[in-house]
Design goal:
Helix content is 59%, strand content 4%. It has 105 residues and is mainly alpha-helical. The chain has a two-stranded parallel ribbon.
Length: 105
C-alpha cells in the first residue's frame, strides 16, 4: 500500500513540476507552451503588466482565443500572490524603517 501511495506522490509531483505559474514565469517558461511565438509574446506582455486572477483573464489579449486557453490550461496554474502587492509591502516596510531611523537621531 505504501508503495502505491509513494508512486502516486511521485507522479503527481512530476506533473506539477511541469506546470507554469503564469504570474511568476519567465519568457523561457512560456516557450514550453505549444503556441505560436506571437501568442507567447502577447501573453508575456500581458502577464508582465497584469496579475492574472483566473485563466480567462488571458482572453483580454487580442490574439488569444478560447481554443488557446483550452490548449494551455493543463500546463499553467495561477498563484494568487500579487507581484505588485509584494513590492508595495516591501516599500512600505522600508519607508517605515527609514522614518524610524530619522526619529531616533
Amino acid at each position: 500500500m505504501y508503495k502505491n501511495l509513494f508512486t502516486i506522490f511521485v507522479i503527481v509531483s512530476f506533473i506539477n513540476a511541469e506546470m507554469i505559474d503564469i504570474n511568476n514565469c519567465s519568457i523561457e517558461d512560456l516557450k514550453k507552451l505549444d503556441l505560436k511565438k506571437e501568442k507567447l509574446n502577447s501573453i508575456w506582455n500581458y502577464v508582465s503588466q497584469n496579475n492574472v486572477q483566473n485563466i480567462f483573464d488571458l482572453l483580454e489579449i487580442d490574439n488569444i482565443d478560447s481554443e488557446d486557453i483550452h490548449q494551455i490550461k493543463k500546463y499553467i496554474f495561477i498563484n494568487s500572490n500579487d507581484k505588485n502587492n509584494n513590492s508595495s509591502a516591501f516599500t512600505y516596510k522600508v519607508d517605515r524603517w527609514l522614518a524610524a531611523e530619522g526619529n531616533s537621531e
